Structure of 3-hydroxyacyl-CoA dehydrogenase family protein:
Amino acid sequence: MASPLSPSSLQKIAVVGLGTMGTGIAEVLAKAGRDVVGIDISEAQTAACVAALESATARAVARGRLTEPERAEVLARFRTATELTAAADADLVIEVAPESYEVKQQIFRELDGIVRPDTILATGTNALSVTRLAADSARPERVLGLHFFNPAPAMKLVEVVSSVLTAPDAVTAVTDLAVQLGKEPVAVGDRPGFVADGLLFGYLNQAAAMYEANYATREDIDAAMRLGCGLPMGPLALLDLIGVDTARTVLDAMYAESQDRLHAPAPILKQLSEAGLTGRKAGRGFYTYEAPGSATVVRDALTPLAGGGLTPGRPVSSVGVAGSGTMASGIAEVFAKAGYDVVLAARSEEKAQAAKARIGKSLSRSVDKGRMTAEAAVQTLERITPAGSYDAFADVDLAVEAVAEDLDVKRQLFAALDKVCKPGAVLATTTSSLPVIACARATSRPQDVIGMHFFNPAPAMKLVEVVRTVLTGDDVHATVREVCGTIRKHAVDCGDRAGFIVNALLFPYLNNAIKMVQDHYASLDDIDAAMKLGGGYPMGPFELLDVVGLDVSLAIEKVLHREFRDPGLAPAPLLEHLVAAGCLGRKTGRGFREYARR
C-alpha cells in the first residue's frame, strides 16, 4: 500500500481558483491521469474552465496528441464546484487565488477544517510569503509553494518552494509529482519572486522605468531585447501579457524584502494599474489591443509613423571599418554583402589581411550551408580592400570604428579620422559602454559623430543600437538609419548613456543572478534552468556570463554603477573575486563553470 506521502498517492487533487493559471494546471493534472476538482466561487469561471478544457483536448485530438477515447477519459476525470468542501477527499490542494494575503489566508483557514490531516496544501503564489501563509495554517508542515508558469500546459518549469516549516517528505512527494507531470521542478527557498520571477521582474521594472524616462520608445525597447538577447518577447509586451497590476504586486513584495531600488515599482506601473490599463486583459497597457484579452496590437497615438523622419540622409557608397578583431571583420562582411565598397584598416597591413582572410572563411561557411552562392561570396570578398593605415579612409562616406573598448584608444582614433576623412563623412563608434560624446569631442565635427552598436556576431545579429549625442546632426542620424535598412539590420534609437538599451537591462539581471548564488539561495544549474524553462531565455544567466566573459561583464557592471550611482547596480563581489582569480569564462577554461581545454 502506498504511504500517505508517496507521489503515487497524490491521485485526487483540488485546484482552487480557476483563472488562466488554475485552468491550465487543472488541464495538466487531468491529462496526467489525476482526478481533479476545480473550485471557484464564480459559476461563470467554472463554466469557462470546463469550456477551456474541452477546447484544449479537442485541439489535442485534432493534432494527434490524444485519441477520442483518451479525451473522454480526461474530461471524465475533471469536475467543478463552487464550495471548498469539494476538496474534502483531496490528497493535494493547489491554491491559485488572487495575490492577496487576506484571500489566501481565508482559503487556507477554511481548508484546515475540511481536508484530511495528511493532505498537502500548496500555494501557487509568486509574490507572497509561503512561510507567512504556512504559519497561519493549523498544519504548517503540510504547506508549501508550487509555482507553475503560464501557460501551464506548455511551460516546463515548476518551482517547489519550501518554508522553514515544511516537512521534507511533503516536498519530495510534490517534486516527484511534478516530474510525473512532465515538468522540471526546481527547489527554491521562500523569498518574493523565487528564482525566475525574482530575476525577471527586476528586469521588467527597469524596462518600464527606461520607457517612462522617454529614453527609448516602447517598440525600440522591445525590439532591442528580442533581437539583442534572443528573447521571445520584449519586456513591455511581456508586462502587458502578465498584467501590469500583477507585476506591481510582485515588485512591491520584492522591494519590501530587499529594499533594493531596482525592485521599487516604476511609477508608471502604479499609474497604469490605477487607471485600469493593466495590459492585454484590459485591452490596453503599454500597448493598445484589438479587444480585452486579445493579443493583437493596434495602432494608437504612440505608434511610430511608417517611413520615419523627413530629414534626408547623406549618400553612402563606400565604408571604412577600423579594427582587425572579430567585431571589425564581422561588420566589414555585413557592409560588403550589402554591396558597399569597404576599406578594412588596421594598425598593420598584416592584421588587415588576416581580418580579410577571416571574412573569407566566414563567407565559405555561408556557401557550405547554402546561404549564398560561391559567386556571391567571391564578389563580396572583392569589395573589401585591406589597408595598414587609416589614411585609406580619405574617400569613405561612413567610417565605423571597432577597436578596443578603451576610451583613450577611441579618442586617438577619432582624432585621426577627423584629419583623414573628407568633410561630410559620417563617423561612427561601435562602443557598447563608453560615452559617444567623448569620441565626438575628440573631433572638430561632433555633429558628424554617432554610435552604431552592432552585436556579436555581426553577420548573424539583426540589431543595431543607433546612439545620438546631444550634438549629432539630424541628417547624420537619418543617414545611419537608412544604412541600417540597406544592410538589413533593425535599428533602434537611444540616447548617449551607459549601456544604451540592451546592456542597461541585461547586466543588472545578470548581476542579480550572481547575487542569488552568492547568497546560497539557489544553484547555478537551477537558476539557468529556471530562466530557460520559465522565462524562455535562450541561455541561462551563468551560461551567458561565461560566453560573454566575466571580465567584460564586470567592466560593463562598473560603468553602469558609475553612471547611475544606484547601490543595486554595484557588481556582485563574487564576480569581482572570479575575475581577480583569472576565471574569465570559456576563454580561460573556467568561469562560473569549468570547460574542457581545446
The two ends are 54 Å apart (CA to CA). DSSP finds 22 helices and 18 strands in the chain.
